[in-house]
Amino acid sequence: MKWADLPGRHSLFWKLACLLVAFCLLMIWLSWSWGRYMEERNQFLSDEARGTLTRYAAEAEQAWRQRQRPGVDAWLQVMRQREQGWSGVISGDLQSLSSEALTDPQIERLTFLRGLDWPIHKKNLPWMRVPFPGDPSAGSLVIQLPQRFQPGRYQVFWRVITNVVIPGLFTLLLCVGLYRLLVVPLNQLREQANAWRADQLGVRLSSRTTNRSDELGELGRAFDHMSERLQSTVALQQQLLRDLSHELRTPLSRLRVASEGEQNLTQLRERIGREVDGMQRLVEDTLQLAWLDTERAPLPDEAIQIQALWEMLTENACYESACPVGRLQCRVDSTCWVRGNLNTLAQALENILRNAIRHSPTGGIVRLDGRREGHFWHLWLEDEGGGVADKDLERIFSPFIRLDGSRPGNGGFGLGLSIARNAVQRQGGQIWAENTGVGLRVNLRLVAEVDGVPDDGVASRLAPTMDVGQPKWV
What is the fold of 299-461? Predict the structure, then answer.
């Protein structure tokens, strides 16, 4: 595996790896430390047992020092009442310090005596040797370990604790960590998906999920972005339907009045033709705006010469509006090549040009200019129509917005600039408006052609097929 194939440092893989490694190391440490502790509990005498046996040895030493053998005999009588099992007091050379001599089996057992710090492995009670605390060389207490001091009495219980309870608790702790790391954000994603199914598109994930830097955080941010996109798309569709139904009422009302009036057949046909053309353009523009806003597939791009595109657009505009060619000026030279989709860019620039012509006064100049800014071309189209209020500079790009009285002239449905903005943004560009003091300037920021090499097929594709009301780009 190459280093490039490894996940990023914020990947969920590393979090899971660290969690599992920490769990394994914790279990290893627990096994080692707890194992040693349990070994001491099950194989070595407890502190209480050591203290009691040491105290017995001190009593035996005191009895020997005070009364010699009679004292030891008296003390052994007391010991037989205290503890079951054999006990005796011997010298350093393994000779009995009491009046009672050692038997051969007892002498044989003296060769297998255990100290207080020795491990206790046998199931039978061992014989223990406890030296005198004051003078270990003077003698020792030999006693068969009392049953109550035998280690490992709760061995089964501690085995259950060690092998079942503690691993189970730590495994449960691991499951809780995995649940918080994986399942909690997945549950939130499921809840958001269920909210979408219930048409609750405003539901968002918590910041705790979206702020994560791993794959689940990326998935959460993608879900939120998709939710916002769905909500805006649904809101746009609903708004377009409401606005479209509102806009269609006016021509339909005029058609009803015309059909019920006393106009002759020729005038009625002309009226019907005008209203149908208007409704057709309204429906086509609305559908185009909805398509631009919802379609996410990348558009094919190519090198486009703005000067050649402008010439084709102005030819159409002059044909439709009877505007003199001299009023439409272009200061962009032939070196201005941008990268984009020809159809959508032509439609965007055409809508901006029509809007400028519509709102320009008689004799007003419409001018296209621009400059190269790094990897972009900054183009602007300005008119002499007086501009709009500053608070409306952004509103004019909203669908069905017509600023009645703010600019001279009328006509259109308020969709041209909305279509232009969506078309430009789909090609990685920007569009905005500003007042110049004389009129309105619409700015476009388009991706520049890298090498400036023209596309041989673009010039032929710029030729429009003329159709009344709407040019079609091939």
Answer: Heat Shock Protein 90 (3.30.565)
Q: Which CATH class is domain 45-149?
A: alpha beta
**pLDDT of the residue at 373:** 92
Q: What is the pTM of this model?
A: 0.47
What mean pLDDT do residues 372-377 have?
92
Contacts of residues 340-343 at CB distance under 8 Å and 24 or more positions apart, as own/partner, are 340/299, 340/301, 340/302, 340/304, 340/427, 340/428, 340/429, 340/446, 340/447, 341/299, 341/300, 341/301, 341/302, 341/426, 341/427, 342/302, 342/304, 342/309, 342/458, 342/461, 342/462, 342/473, 343/473
Which pLDDT tens digit goes with each residue over 285-316?
Answer: 667 666 666 665 567 788 999 999 999 888 87
Token reading at 242:
């409401």
Domain locations in the chain?
9-42+155-187, 45-149, 201-276, 299-461
pLDDT at 435: 92
What is the H or E stretch that residue 326 is in?
A: none
